[in-house]
């Protein structure tokens, strides 16, 4: 699955790719416990958020011994299930301790429709990135039914540049109003949807993920090693505990 060239529009990718991590499970043999690390005075580690050179946003202790990375799609129901079950315990138990950092990298497994929430989710900036990410995952129950005619709708966008189809999908799925309700002005939202440089950057980072072996969402890495077969919070937490968290 390559996204090297953005011409008129990206095709829709098979929805089966969502939730397909593949491969056998990694060992869950327990390692020695890693030490907790205090956050800066007056803060907790969930307030430390930065954009990474790999195209993601990371929350937590920059020097955390355990670095969890998720390649995810905001329209992937399995990613939504992981967020619903795991975001609170991940942040409250593991990120706040300073033992684990959590990075989310966009992986546009559905092709064209994924650009709208990804671009807008990045547009809100570092402080709001994770709250908006979680809100988008929670909103899937109202968003996903609007994709029932996805193939037909995408056909109407053939021959259009990427920034046009990103805006069209944002309007169809209701994401412009969604981010407006969370403090992002509509003019800025539309500017982000039309940002060709940001679109090209996301395609480049998609390629990097594919080269690392990512083929479905969610795909998790711990200290740059793939957590094969782990797609649920329960499975990921087992790996964190086995690594000493």
From TrEMBL:
Domain of life: Bacteria
Residues making up the signal peptide according to the UniProt record: 1-16
Keyword set, alphabetical order: Signal
Keyword Signal: yes
A matching Pfam family: Thioredoxin_4
Phylogenetic lineage: Bacteria, Pseudomonadati, Pseudomonadota, Alphaproteobacteria, Sphingomonadales
Entries under InterPro entries matching the protein: Thioredoxin-like_fold, Thioredoxin-like_sf
Residue stretches making up the Thioredoxin-like fold domain: 54-241
Ranges that cross the membrane: none
Name of protein: Thioredoxin domain-containing protein
């Amino acid at each position: 699955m390559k996204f090297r060239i953005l011409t008129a529009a990206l095709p829709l990718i098979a929805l089966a790719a969502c939730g397909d991590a593949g491969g056998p499970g990694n060992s869950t043999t327990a390692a020695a416990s890693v030490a907790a690390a205090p956050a800066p005075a007056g803060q907790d580690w969930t307030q430390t958020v930065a954009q990474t050179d790999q195209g993601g946003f990371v929350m937590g202790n920059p020097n955390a011994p355990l670095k969890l990375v998720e390649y995810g799609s905001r329209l992937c129901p399995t990613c939504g299930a992981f967020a619903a079950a795991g975001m609170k315990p991940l942040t409250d138990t593991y990120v706040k301790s300073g033992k684990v950092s959590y990075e989310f990298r966009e992986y546009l497994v559905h092709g064209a429709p994924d650009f709208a929430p990804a671009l807008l989710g990045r547009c809100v900036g570092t402080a709001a990135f994770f709250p908006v990410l979680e809100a988008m995952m929670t909103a899937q129950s109202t968003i996903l039914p609007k994709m029932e005619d996805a193939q037909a709708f995408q056909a109407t966008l053939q021959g259009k540049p990427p920034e046009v189809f990103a805006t069209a999908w944002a309007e169809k799925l209701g994401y412009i109003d969604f981010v407006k309700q969370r403090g992002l002005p509509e003019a800025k939202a539309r500017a982000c949807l039309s940002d060709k440089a940001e679109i090209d950057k996301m395609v480049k980072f998609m390629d990097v993920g594919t080269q690392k072996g990512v083929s479905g969402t969610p795909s998790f890495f711990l200290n740059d090693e793939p957590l094969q077969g782990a797609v649920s919070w329960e499975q990921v937490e087992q790996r964190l505990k086995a690594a000493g968290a």
